[in-house]
Amino acid sequence: MVVKEHPVDIYREQLQIVIESKVDEFKMIGYDRVTDDDIWSCLKSKKWKKIHGDVKIHQLVNDVLTLSTSEYMNFLTVEAYKAPLWSFDEYK
Q: What are the residue ranges in the chain where pLDDT is below 50?
């Protein structure tokens, strides 16, 4: 199976410093488990979901900087619901 690369993936290295800044911001307000990969996944699946062509780097930077904690927590909640459920019958 061929995995199609997202159009913003080529900007990951250039956006790393901005993503790290967002991680630091979230950690400063109490979200201790946030990672740069989580932020990147959230942005790709939410804000950058419909990007198909050319995109300007300043638009991506703005998207990172304006990501709110509520958007991030909504993303984590949806991802948790998508995860396979644990079967408690195995532990009885």
A: none
Domain containing 66 equals 8-82
Residue type, 64: V
Distance CA 58, CA 76 (A): 26
Work out how many domains the chain is built from and give that number.
1
What are the distances in angstroms from CA 54 to CA 25, 45, 51, 59? Answer: 29, 17, 8, 11
- Model pLDDT, residue 3: 56
Is 89 within a domain?
no
5 vs 2: CA distance, rounded Å: 9
